[in-house]
Amino acid sequence: MRTFEQSNLLKSLPTQFFATLVGKVNKVIEQGHDVINLGQGNPDQPTPDHIVKALQEAATNPIHHKYSQFRGQKFLKDAIVAYYKREYGVELDAEKQVAILFGGKAGLVEVPQCLLNEGETVLVPDPGYPDYWSGVELAKAKMELMPLKAENQFLPDYKELDTDILEKAKLMFLNYPNNPTGAIATKEFFEETVHLANKHNICVVHDFAYGAIGFDGKKPLSFLQTEGAIETGIEIYTLSKTYNMAGWRVGFAVGNESVIEAINLLQDHMYVSLFGAIQEAAAHALLSSQECVDHLVQTYESRRDTFISELHAMGWKVEAPAGSFFAWLPVPEGFTSVSFSDYLLEKAHVVVAPGVGFGKFGEGYVRVGLLTNEERLTEAVSRIKRLNLF
Ligand SMILES: Cc1ncc(COP(=O)(O)O)c(C=O)c1O
């Protein structure tokens, strides 16, 4: 077969750190071991029935067999507006302040290409979701890291950032509830962010992928609830986690009109919008009873409580996450995040994600996804306990 060479752009993309981990895990599975995989972020439960039924019905409607509206259906944008009003008290204009996305990932990767020229600066949280890096690289932009440290509750300390970097920065990514640390943002932090972004003319992109998942009765804040935020940037939301719809690829961006227009314009050149029946089911998910979401949050909270209390009982000093479905655990002395993950895989057949895969400030931690039932989580803890590390 003739091999066609990849473009320089493609060759410049960051290598997928976690692909190596998948390779190692598969080897252990092939050896016939019962592996407990807590290394990934894929929701383990099915989409609620009423949403699946809405898709089934909508799929028979011939109107959806034609090309959809280029920029997404009005009924979905109206549902998003109603959702933000109901959940967060935020008023949005359906035509000017909402863009439909093929999942949150697509929007996160598109935004740098929409707003940045070669060499321009983006502020990125470290540790952080690796897809931010891909978008920055595709735009040929330059990444400056904002360390997320335990002593600052995993919020960036803006005072640590050099003024000249802040002056150069055009874009900033934030993500709360946070992947991988499980931290949530405060009202004061978002206010400080709006102030800083306005002062330095930075567009804020708040990734709200885990917006529905807050524990101990605390509902995570939308960035757009902050005064002035709607002028300062956008929020990217996804139905993947809230409704266990990761395979459906539905998300949206809301906020600053000029950014929404830029996203829509880029998407005009790349796609026609999502399958209309998926848009109909997505609108149904946002507008119908949210009991399924309450139930999901209770499930994750109960898993968190079981898992964390068992780790404490073993003597592993860890903090319980305040939101998301991840726990961020410090590795025992003498290990790096990779050597500890390898050790757990080899000796306990438990998979965790090494923190360094999320950036250099992730070193010293591993990420656990609470994405299996409590019995399996308990089994994972028992296996780790037998290693006598704590
Ligand atoms: C922090 C964060 N942002 C965005 C996404 C993207 O989700 P999706 O593309 O399914 O909407 C994920 C998915 O794992 C995530 O963890």
Task: Give an overview of the whole structure.
The protein has helices spanning 8-11, 17-30, 49-59, 74-88, 103-115, 131-138, 163-168, 187-200, 229-232, 239-242, 257-270, 276-287, 291-314, 337-348, 374-385, and strands at residues 36-37, 98-101, 121-126, 142-147, 169-175, 203-207, 233-238, 251-255, 326-330, 350-351, 353-354, 365-369. The chain is built from 15 helices and 12 strands. Strand 3, helix 6 (131-138) and strand 4 (142-147) form a beta-alpha-beta unit. The strands form 3 sheets. A 7-stranded mixed beta sheet has the order 2-8-7-6-5-3-4, with helices on both faces. It has a 3-stranded antiparallel beta sheet with strand order 9-12-11, with helices on one face. A two-stranded parallel ribbon has the order 1-10. With 390 residues, the protein is of the alpha/beta class. Helix 13 (291-314) runs parallel beside helix 15. Pyridoxal-5'-phosphate binds next to helix 5.
